[in-house]
Amino acid sequence: MRRWSCQAAASLALAAPLAVQAQEAPPPPRLLGLGASYVADALHVADGGVARGGGLAARADAWVDLNGAALGVSRLTAHVDMIAVHGPVFSDSWAGDAQGISSIQAPSRHHLYEAWVRWQASDNAAPLAIATKIGLIDVNTEFDVQSVGALFVHASHGTGAELAQSGPNGPGIFPMAASGALVTASTAGKLTVRLGAFDAQAGSVNNDRLPAFRLPGTTGALLIGEVEVPLGQGELQLGVWRYTRAMPRVDDDTRNARSHGAYALLEGPLAPHWHGWVRLGLADARSNPISCYLGTGLVREAGAWQLGVAMAHARLGGRARATLRADGLASAHETAFELTAARPVTGWLTLQPELQYVIHPGWDPALRSALVWGMRFKLTWSR
Q1: Long-range CB contact pairs, 206-215, < 8 A, 24+
Q2: Greater confidence, 190 or 65?
Q3: Are the C-beta atoms of 87 and 94 separated by less than 8 Å?
Q4: CA distance 162 to 156
Q5: Which of 263, 316, 312, 306 is nearest to 285 (CA)?
Q6: N or C: which end of the chain has fewer CB within 10 A?
Q7: Among 16-20, 133-137, 255-259, 266-270, where is mean pLDDT lowest?
Q8: Distances from the Cα of 351 to the Cαs of 56, 88, 103, 105, 338, in angstroms?
């Protein structure tokens, strides 16, 4: 009896860890991830600009992510995003500014926004991790990403104004992505290089409010490269971009020039609970109205709150100033100051009161500086 008892005890002792391991085994990877978001800006021009007034503009997204690991292809991921935009364009109707007081304002539309496939060519732990992506891509999800500035409502704290103005229908950023392909390479020290080629025309050639899949460069290409260098807990981004096809000059639309530019972004923590950034961008003044852009700001974490102050300063190039001066518009710059605060109310709702002051909106010296106030609402869901 004693021998059988010892054998039973030994069997139980061996089985216990196996049972624990079985209980702690990770669940199988999920094939599909679902998500949705709704971001709304309720903004009002209280003084200055074109006219007093305001409204509510919103962007709704619904997306599906495919995880290749569930199919035994762990290095493959895919993403599809549908978008719907509604509401007024504040800058056209009331503020009169050129940069955009809201990053989600656009003419009402709904369409396929992004649809891409990503392949991780080498493991992230490798000395050189390489990944490729191809499809319908928002350029600003990969290039010129301002992590700290993403808190703010003003459009120039997404993609810098000098880059955002480029291209016949924008450089493949909200509200219309572009067909493209890119390669990302990261070293073990997290130095990252990105190289991308995107179609110069974002959207259909016949209707730029409809998406279109084309081989990158079918209507000319936007070539863009970026180096991301870690600096302590922050980072430095250096980027260059160029369109392969010449575009009409800002001072003489019978002549063409190649649009190109460069940017530098430095961002990261400055002190406990403080984060900041500064971004400088330059563009060819022959084919781009805005030849220089400077953006900067600070964000303070205060409990559940994020408090921020920022500036977006865009300067016209000499050729654009000369053209506008002939039309009675002579201001050399447009500068927007923003004060904002964001706080999650629940796990799915964030409220963000907002205040902006725009000097020389639309380069027009006849327009008084615009005072804008309002609220941003963010609703998110995922599973």
Answers
A1: 208/168, 208/169, 208/176, 209/107, 209/109, 209/111, 209/176, 210/111, 211/111, 211/112, 211/113, 211/136, 211/176, 211/177, 212/179, 213/115, 213/135, 213/136, 213/179, 214/179, 215/179
A2: 65
A3: no
A4: 9
A5: 316
A6: N
A7: 16-20
A8: 14, 20, 16, 18, 16
| Radius of gyration, alpha carbons of the chain | 25
Asked, for residue 70, whether it belongs to a domain, the answer is yes
Amino acid at 380: T
Q: Please give the structure tokens belonging to residue 103.
A: 């990053």
> Is 322 domain-assigned?
yes
26-33 contact pairs (CB < 8 A, 24+): 28/70, 29/67, 29/69, 29/70, 30/67, 30/70, 31/66, 31/67, 31/70, 31/71, 32/64, 32/65, 32/66, 32/67, 33/64, 33/65, 33/66, 33/67, 33/382, 33/383
Residue 12, in any domain of the structure: no
Instruction: Give the pLDDT band (50/70/90) at residue 79.
Output: very high
146-190 confidence digits (pLDDT tens): 999 999 999 999 999 999 999 999 999 999 999 999 999 999 878
What are the φ and ψ backbone dihedral angles of 149, each rounded to 5 degrees? -70, -15
Per-residue burial over 118-136, b = 16 or more CB atoms within 10 Å of its CB, e = otherwise: bebeeeeeeeebebebbbb
Tell me the CATH number at 184. Answer: 2.40.160.180
Q: Which phi and psi angles does 194 have, rounded to 5°?
A: -125, 135
Domain membership of residue 20 (yes or no) is no
* Chain length of the chain: 383
Tens-place pLDDT, residues 220-275? 999 999 999 999 999 999 999 999 999 999 988 889 999 999 999 999 999 999 99
Read off the tokens for 336: 């927007």
- Tokens coding 145: 């990403």
Model pTM score: 0.91
Query: Residue holding tokens 């940069």?
Result: 99
Number of domains in the chain: 1
Stretch among 57-66, 242-251, 306-315 having the lowest mean pLDDT: 242-251
Token pair in block for residue 87 = 């509401």
Distance between CA atoms of 54 and 90, rounded to whole angstroms?
7
In this structure, is the dihedral angle defined by the CA atoms of residues 214, 61, 234 and 267, taken in order, positive or negative?
A: positive
What's the domain range around 259? Answer: 29-382
